[in-house]
Give the backbone structure.
Amino acid sequence: MPSVKTAQIREASFSPSVDAISVLESTTNVALRPEAEGRVVKILATEGERVKAGQPILVLDNVQQSAALNASRAQAHTDRINAERYEFLYLNGATSAKQRDQYATQAIASRDKALADAATLGYKYVRSPIDGVVGDLDTVKLGDYVTTGQAITGIVDNSTLWTLMQIPATQAGQVKLGQRVTVASQTNPPVTGEGSVSFISPYFGVPGTDQGPNTLMVKATFPNLTGQLKTGQFVKSQIITGNTQALAVPVQAVFMQAQQPFVYKLVPLSKALPKIKASTSIPDAKKKRLERLPGNTPLVVQTPVQLGPLQNNHYAVRSGLSTGETVVVSNTALLSNGMPVKVSR
């Protein structure tokens, strides 16, 4: 008599989902481009370094711009002192309003010239526009000449990510804004994250575009709490489209015959014996052996079932089983219909 383990049929929560393999993208990802041309004289950051918004990454040759700024600041200082002196003289009747205004206007022009020169010098410092991580800097070396708008590297902030999913048209109607989305990396062990649907494309993909034909682009936004998920990484995504209660049967209990799922249901011999005696397919010798066993001896009965989706190692049961019934979850390959078994604890 084979020994088996069993499980009782109970209700469980099932969350229908739309699954996809998708790529991650940072919600904040910018190319670093200089606003002026020049030769690189300093590299102040390294690839992979975390930087703050406004932090210098490269310094371009700025001798002329620095000299121009120093000169304009000196002139602005001189003109400001002259304007203050002529304001004093005017208040004491020692000069005309015209002369006072002339020096005041010159001071304003000199101040603005110094501000403009400071801005021009500032363009020689290539700064990070955002908080983030510096990408590949191998393309630029000391002494290289860079041009205005040339892509130097990327600055990526992975603290918040998008997962970009292409959902088949047959499932698109199940997707709504705000639905919960889980992601898991394809590493071992997987890195997980959770967010929600934040964008649903207003059109389906057509041939010749980045979006697959007859698919719907869906974005989910989620915080990268561990910092281990990266832009460009492929992950398994699940859009949770609902939540239902249903009877659940462990995956270990289910076996297939001719594409029909079955389980072995446990019943006491006393309950099954009338049907066994009436059966014409069971040999008389087997019937007599069973009649000699105690009435509480458990038998396995091969039972067809209709199943729903698999989640958390359980199938939702659509038909074939009832609450409280017991099924076999081990050694099913050794069993046959009507076989007595011993239940192990």
In short: DSSP finds five helices and 23 strands in the chain. The chain has four domains: 3-14+246-343, 17-26+155-244, 34-60+127-151, 63-122.
